[in-house]
Specification:
Strand 7 (about 160-165), helix 6 and strand 8 (about 190-195) form a beta-alpha-beta unit. It contains 6 helices and 10 strands; from the N terminus they run βββαββαβαααβαβββ. Helix 4 packs across helix 5 (about 140-155). The two termini are about 35 Å apart. The chain is globular, with a radius of gyration of 17 Å. The chain has a single domain (about 5-230), classed as Rossmann fold, CATH 3.40.50.300. The chain is an alpha/beta fold. The chain has a 6-stranded mixed beta sheet, with helices on both faces. The protein has a 4-stranded antiparallel beta sheet with strand order 2-1-4-5, covered by helices on one side.
């Protein structure tokens, strides 16, 4: 199977005062389309930097990043903006939804940035929020707010869904429901990448990538991923 995402000797160097710090130090990585991927590593390992580069929110200092047939590491700022708008969905630990807009209005914001959006009614139904579409965020639970952010992300029909600790602010029961929604997206050929400290999530992943000190320690297929309901959270 050809890789959908490929990183070749990717470095990201930051200058702090007179010192250089390699947040990523020669990363080589291959991920296939439609995989449910978990990236594990301690704080400062380079996980979030990797996510930022894949999402086109930053550029590598050196090396190449391919998504599909496109080398996004060579993109101009304008091309990266277009890439983020059309190809990538983002989900974060804190929901980043607009408090003055209803659920429906938050989700339909995506229509302002892409012309490939799905039908909002179907998306809200898929995440169990259709009956709450006219509510404001403060009227929802934390899990429901996270589902709003998921609905907004999948509304654009992204090729890649990038998730930074998406269950970190949730209790275990709600976190399981969120993971089920994210897992479902890989059934539609969306490549789902989750950055997390929670090693239990790796048990349900198709691929587990471990990062430490800016390097990929391992990149392994999970031959027998568990169903999310089988894991003892």
């Amino acid at each position: 199977m050809n890789s959908f995402i490929k990183l070749k000797n990717v470095k990201k160097t930051y200058v702090v005062g007179e010192q250089e710090f390699n947040a990523l130090d020669g990363v080589n990585l291959d991920i296939n389309q439609g995989e449910f991927v978990v990236i594990l590593g301690p704080s400062g390992a380079g996980k979030s930097t990797l996510l930022n580069l894949l999402g086109g929110m930053d550029k590598p200092t050196s090396g190449s990043i391919f998504v599909g047939e496109n080398e996004i590491s060579k993109y101009t700022d304008k091309e990266l903006t277009r890439y983020r708008a059309s190809d990538v969905g983002f989900i974060f630990q804190f929901y980043n939804i607009m408090p003055t807009l209803t659920v429906d209005e938050n989700v339909n914001l995506i229509k302002d940035v892409t012309n490939t959006s799905k039908d909002s009614k179907e998306v809200l139904k898929s995440v169990g929020l259709l009956k709450h579409k006219n509510k404001f965020p403060q009227e929802l639970s934390g899990g429901e707010q996270q589902r709003v952010s998921i609905a907004r992300a999948i509304m654009k029909n992204p090729k890649v869904l990038l998730c930074d600790e998406p269950t970190g602010a949730l209790d275990s029961k709600t976190g399981v429901e969120v993971l089920k929604l994210l897992r479902k997206q890989s059934d539609f050929d969306t490549t789902v990448i989750i950055v997390t400290h929670n090693a239990l999530i790796a048990e349900v992943a198709d691929r587990v990538i471990k990062v430490k000190n800016g390097k990929v320690e391992s990149n392994e297929l999970n031959k027998h991923p568990k169903n999310i309901g089988e894991v003892k959270w």
